[in-house]
Please model this.
Amino acid sequence: MNQRIGYIRVSPDNQHLDLQRETLKKAGCRAIYEEAFSGNSRERPKLEQCLRELRAGDSLVVWRLDDLGRSLSDLVMTVESLEQLGVGFESITEQIETTGAAGKVVIHVFAALAEFRRSLIRKQTQPGLAAARARGRAGGRKPKLDDQQVREIEELLSNPDMRVADVARRYGVSRTTIYKYVGVVVPQH
Model:
């Protein structure tokens, strides 16, 4: 039996679910999962629970597209994973339904736009990185220890009574950083 299952997401400061709930009920949803969280939150337990319940032939129904995805690429990935499971997707407000050809085309356009956006970001980032390298700047974090400090640490550790933990504390770094810079073998416990 194919079922329609609804999912509603609202931000914690906007708890008005009545319109969304009624709309999903009118759309034939037999179960509706509701969740309140901020858009930045990675944890969406109700959505995960909802997705686990869906079977091939079912449809996931949302009130708006942004209920399902935090970003365009997130939305596309979720809808594509539904498609692979044989589950349809419907957004009532945007009138998109992936069980039909027109809805599938819209999702593919969204996927192309998401990929285009990623490509644009890469293209805009590359010249900046190249210019920084030309000026002698390497990417990544600034080194924790300079060459002089590394030489001092090597000299300190040449004393068998000197403990790595004491040297690390003196230079304000972790023992792991000391091991990384001076090649000290990590003691086995």
Summary: Residues 4-111 form a domain with the Rossmann fold fold (CATH 3.40.50.1390).
